[in-house]
Amino acid sequence: MSTSDPPVPHAQQAARRYPCSYPGCSKSYSKLSRLSEHHRSHTGERPFVCDDCGKSYLRETHLHAHRRSHLPDSQRSYVCTESPGCGKRFWTLQHLRVHQDTHRGDKTYICPEDGCEEAFSKHHQLRAHVCEAHSPPGTKPYICPHPSCDKSFPTNQKLRGHMKTHDDKRYTCSHPSCTPDLNGDPVYFGTWTALQSHLRTAHPPTCTHESCKGRTFASPHNLRAHLKLHEQQEVEALLQGERLDDDDVETSHSRKRRRGGELGRDWKCDYARCEKEFKSKRALTAHHKVIHLGQRNHLCPHPLCDSAFGYKHLLQRHLTKIHSSKRARSSSSSSDDTTDAEASEATTEVDVIEEITGKAYARRLQNAGFIRCPFPDVEELLLLPSDTSVPSTSSRKTCDHVVTRAYDLRRHLKAEHGVVVDKAKVDRWTSVQKCARAS
């Protein structure tokens, strides 16, 4: 410091001893206790609570001042003697002086509008005057001073909360890659939505597990659920290793491992004779609707197809195997001497006619990969013929459903016809049908 510079007062030096470390806040205090009180304004903590009404405050002195509101007026120390018969009592000398000014006729609150000479002894009277005389109808006492904002509020607390929306540096990104160095500035955002959008695009939640190779997720909630699966897989691996040590190799290979492992299946189906277990309530609800209630909410969008499925992936498989061939056939059947529009219209008309007459379905069955549902002739495939009921002869209509795998056929017979079949019998029957069609 040069000799020409004025000396810094001791009070200012003390005020700089405890600056606020919150990003974007430049306030500082001379006492550590005052800095702690200021930090609560950032965190929202209000530890001082009134036992009588439950109101909470940032500072203990504010709580003491509030508690006096529950005491009778006779305990107020300052009494008005300005006017005979007044006798009003106050807790502080400042409030008493403001009240005495009303007796003297002193009006310290002057209307700031040009050309208005109104003055008032109390601030709330001035606010009410500005709302009635100089503001649009319906304006509340506390008006936002921002130039482009015309909002108003009934209390000062709501106004202060609204003023934060005009702060361009209200939110800051706390991600390590956005943390500034000594010479940089933090990344600020004016709204919570903008900050969340920044986090989703610039810092998406990422799995740090090696097998995931940087897989990202839409929200931290999804990432936490995914990490829980990793934890369960690690425990499953440890348990599997212990089983291999205790059991022989033949027994360990014969035990079928369910997809997703055995741990975490806390959601059990309470339907009679159903022992299914799931890892989420959502999976349990879907199972109950599809298996026990028979809901088929995923409908095929093609107008001439009445297929419905309980799960979305089954509908996607149906569209790929059944209806994708139509699009390929439509694009390849157009001749070279017709336009694209004419060819599309012609093939669409032919497809409609063939669907009505059944030729399109017969042509699909010519493919060796498709197998037609054998219902109602399923007696040779039944698991327990004595316990399984098959529809009577009058209601045994032929099923036109086609599948490509024995697994799909078993699911179809159980879901659509209520028939439980034997896995080994269906596998053998499917192999025979595929060989017959291939030959």
TrEMBL record:
Region (Disordered): 240-261, 322-347
Annotated Gene Ontology cellular component terms: nucleus
Family matches, as InterPro entries: Zinc_finger_trans_reg, Znf_C2H2_sf, Znf_C2H2_type
Pfam family, one: zf-C2H2_6
Keywords of this entry: Metal-binding, Nucleus, Repeat, Transcription, Transcription regulation, Zinc, Zinc-finger
Molecular function, one GO term: DNA-binding transcription factor activity, RNA polymerase II-specific
UniProt-recorded name of the protein: Unplaced genomic scaffold scaffold_52, whole genome shotgun sequence
Residues of the C2H2-type domain: 18-47, 48-75, 78-108, 109-139, 142-171, 267-297, 298-328
Cellular compartments annotated: Nucleus
PROSITE patterns: ZINC_FINGER_C2H2_1 (PS00028), ZINC_FINGER_C2H2_2 (PS50157)
